Amino acid sequence: MLHIVRYPSSEADARLGQIAGRRSGDDPALEKQVMHMIDTVRRDGDQALLSFTRRFDSPGFSLQQLTADENEFESAGKEVDAEFFAVLQTAIDNIRDFHQKQLRHSYFSTSPDGSFLGQMVRPVDSAGLYIPGAKGGETPLISSILMNGIPAKLAGVEDIAMVTPPRRDGSINPHLLVAAREVGISRVHKIGSAWAIAALAYGTAAVAPVDVIVGPGNMYVTLAKKIVAGMVGIDLLAGPSEILVVADSSAQPDFIAADLLSQAEHDPMASAILITTDAQMAEWVNGSLKDQIRHLPRKETAQKALRQYGVIFLVSHLEEAVRLANRIAPEHLELLIEDPWSCLGKIKHAGAIFIGNYTPEPVGDYIAGPNHVLPTAGTARFASALGVENFMKRTSVISYSREALLRDAPAIMRLAELEGLEAHAASIRVRMANLNRGLNS
Description:
Structural class: alpha/beta
Radius of gyration: 26 Å
Shape: globular
Number of domains: 3
Helix content: 40-55%
Strand content: 15-25%
Largest sheet: 6 strands, parallel
Number of strands: 14
Mean pLDDT: 96
CATH topology of the largest domain: Rossmann fold
Low-confidence stretches: none
CATH superfamily of the largest domain: Nitrogenase molybdenum iron protein domain
CATH architecture of the largest domain: 3-Layer(aba) Sandwich
Strand order of the largest sheet: 1-11-10-9-12-13
Number of helices: 17
């Protein structure tokens, strides 16, 4: 199933280059198409949203259906069972508890000279959550609502909008509406793809604009977020899913195979990589992959992903495995080794780390608590998981006393003059002249 490659080698470098080059947003023609969609929404507003939605999602859609009403929420609550409510609440509690610890607070300090410095931490006024349609709304991505909505709510965002494509009949899967209500979403708009991002960024008569847009999506959504970034804040430009498993001879091959498939089934461009010190383990994992993939409903998708972007790297020792893992900087990193804690401190770049045989990646996707919106395509070198901080901003507060300005004025003027900014220096100099007059009077 997976090609086994010795690392380091030129063959390994070539395979790494192929995997790293699988970015999905480098298509000028597609970007032009997305730009046209955005411009159409900016020009035509709700009529553009109606036209795109009728064309791609729901042929009989009307403007009256654009925003979910209270009757739809009440009906959704009756359609889902008690077991779903219980599972949902467990996930909400865990995710909320984890993200609660990320809250940052304002702070201030004073000095004997009377200066006052500080930082105010405030939430943005509004945020937009993009929730993909997922097979016409029949496989609702409930976890995406929780992972994006709970941090926004904890941050104190007052207006949280959710956009998601409607089903063919113009409705939204009731599980999504229930999750949105439980999390505290303010409004739900039935729009998807690039036109939904445009509506959130620029606003229409029916869709108020937001300050930050977060959430996963396809190439159209990712490109739209890239285009509107700067007009609004965004979380990250997510690429295809990826998993990297580091394993030694103590690992269970069936566990490894199952975990590799858990990401390969997402997308033909998903990446599934095993790094192991054990040549026999590599063979066993390949055998298990052949057995397990037969029963997957998304078998063809997983096969394409494994064939195009899957690989087993055979290394001579764990130190080499860790160095390679850091080079790849994966979205999801599993440590299925005899002593994973000894390696944890050596991992520098990963979106999320899963430790031990009983912590498969789906634990993090759904219920453990940490966010599953993670940096992909090597961006874990500089980016982090979505969190409360994505919905907050920091404002500096500065107050200088007379004595503090007298002390620092020469340094400020010298630096301003070196930078050729005479007006900067003059704003200090005029105050010094005023202070000197006061001293001499």
